[in-house]
Structure to design on (334 residues):
């Protein structure tokens, strides 16, 4: 896992869902552990798009359940862009 | 509780004339800071001056077409930058291109649907971002009794106004968990430039059927908006408030 990407994802979640950084690890489940509802998840996806300057499709966003899923998705997207 | 809106900020589209102008003035009188949007610079400046002369610092004019790409996001961003929040959105901008369906051009259809419906969609989507963050928002869509009953010569207009009612209900259920309410107002025949152009025979016929035997004033619609924006209406969402003097009440 890319530490820099994780930290940026963590920062976005802290701001967006009003959480403390220590509540967010790679294993954290957004819906179950952070009580994010469907609107929260849409907002979070939009905030991540802005932070990383990428586009996240609706179907891609639906696959994201944990913080690790988000980091993996963004790592792949940023990697694809740099190739 | 009272009907004051001190500390609130609002955006009214189509604010330069008629019902929109009355709404903007009413919200400013209640203490809100009001951003105004209109396609015509001179008239939106006039309304801004009228507000500023009584309530300094409470008006912010914008010029543009509600359906123009990116305009909604830009306007909302400027409001939140300047005032820090956006609490109230009144989607009032509306046009008519009345003609019998058989004669209606695609351009007549598209222009009315773009302004009346797509404009409301674009501005609502933009305004929801700050409202969701604030966990407080009031969205008022100005529909019409034409959107409830249908009206000869208004296939485009009545379709757009009926769609606004369904749009209102969906926004209400999607956004309720964020303490954002969304309601529609359906005015009947109101004394504005829009109804001024009606044929005398149509006006006469309407007057006979209006229970209160007169056209409404723009202010009488604005009072409904003020109520729906106030704390008194905190548990009302997804509703249509008909302000028509009883025109559609009888048979």
């Amino acid at each position: 896992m890319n530490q820099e990407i994780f930290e940026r994802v963590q920062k976005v979640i802290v701001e967006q869902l009003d959480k403390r950084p220590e509540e967010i690890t790679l294993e954290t489940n957004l819906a179950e552990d952070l009580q994010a509802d469907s609107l929260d998840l849409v907002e979070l996806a939009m905030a991540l798009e802005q932070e990383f300057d990428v586009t996240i499709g609706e179907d891609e966003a639906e696959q994201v359940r944990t913080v690790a899923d988000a980091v993996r998705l963004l790592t792949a997207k940023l990697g694809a862009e740099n190739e | 509780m009272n009907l004051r809106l001190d500390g609130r900020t609002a955006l009214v589209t189509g604010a330069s004339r008629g019902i929109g102008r009355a709404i903007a003035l009413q919200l400013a009188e209640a203490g809100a800071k009001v951003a105004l949007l209109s396609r015509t610079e001179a008239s939106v400046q006039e309304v801004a001056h009228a507000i500023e002369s009584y309530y300094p610092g409470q008006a912010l004019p914008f010029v543009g077409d509600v359906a123009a790409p990116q305009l909604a996001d830009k306007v909302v961003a400027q409001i939140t930058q300047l005032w820090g929040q956006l609490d109230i959105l009144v989607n009032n901008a509306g046009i008519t291109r009345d003609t019998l369906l058989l004669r209606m051009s695609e351009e007549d259809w598209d222009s009315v649907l773009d302004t009346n419906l797509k404009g409301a969609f674009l501005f609502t989507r933009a305004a929801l971002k700050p409202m969701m963050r604030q966990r407080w928002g009031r969205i008022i869509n100005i529909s019409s009794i034409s959107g409830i009953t249908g009206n000869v010569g208004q296939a485009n207009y009545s379709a757009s106004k009926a769609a606004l009612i369904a749009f209102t209900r969906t926004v209400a259920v999607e956004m309720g968990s964020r303490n954002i309410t969304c309601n529609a107002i359906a005015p009947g025949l109101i004394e504005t430039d829009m109804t001024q152009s009606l044929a005398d025979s149509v006006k006469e016929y309407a007057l006979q059927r209006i229970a209160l035997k007169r056209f409404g004033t723009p202010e009488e619609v604005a009072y409904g908006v003020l109520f729906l924006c106030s704390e008194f209406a905190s548990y009302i969402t997804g509703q249509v408030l008909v302000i028509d003097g009883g025109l559609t009440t009888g048979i």
In short: The interface with chain A takes residues 132, 174-175, 177-178 of chain B (CB under 8 Å).
